[in-house]
Amino acid sequence: MDAMKDFPSVLRTQYVRALLMQRDEAEAARLRAQFERCARRYPYAGDIASERELMEIADRCAQPSTL
Fold first, then answer.
1. Using one digit for the tens of pLDDT, what is the confidence trace for 2-16?
2. CB atoms within 10 A of CB 9
3. What letters, b where the CB count within 10 A reaches 16 and e where it falls short, cover 14-34?
4. What is the pLDDT of residue 3?
5. 16 within 8 A of 22, measured Cβ to Cβ
6. Which residue in 6, 28, 42, 54 has its CB near the most CB atoms, within 10 A?
7. d(CA 23, CA 15)
8. Other CB atoms closer than 10 Å to residue 45's CB: what's the count?
9. Rg of the chain over CA atoms, in angstroms?
């Protein structure tokens, strides 16, 4: 992961880890911003769409459930 630290899938993985495992919203926000900067120049739009979908799933999992 260190060698590919600027790849969208690595940034997504780090984002999800910060959001769900560490519960560090500031770090998650920083990683999300880094992901968005990377996404602007990434040549494969389909990959970015898939990564965003996975990040949205993580966002929903991080929300407190309202039963």
1. 788 889 999 999 999
2. 14
3. bbbebbeeeeeeeebeebbeb
4. 83
5. no
6. 28
7. 10
8. 9
9. 12
Concatenating the DSSP letter of every residue in the chain gives: --TTTTSHHHHHHHHHIIIIIS--HHHHHHHHHHHHHHHHH-S-HHHHHHHHHHHHHHHHHHSPP--
Separation of alpha carbons 29 and 25, rounded Å: 6
Number of other residues whose CB lies within 10 A of the CB of residue 36: 13
Please write the tens of the pLDDT for every residue from 49-67. 999 999 999 999 998 875 5
Kindly state the tokens that stand for 28.
Answer: 């998650």
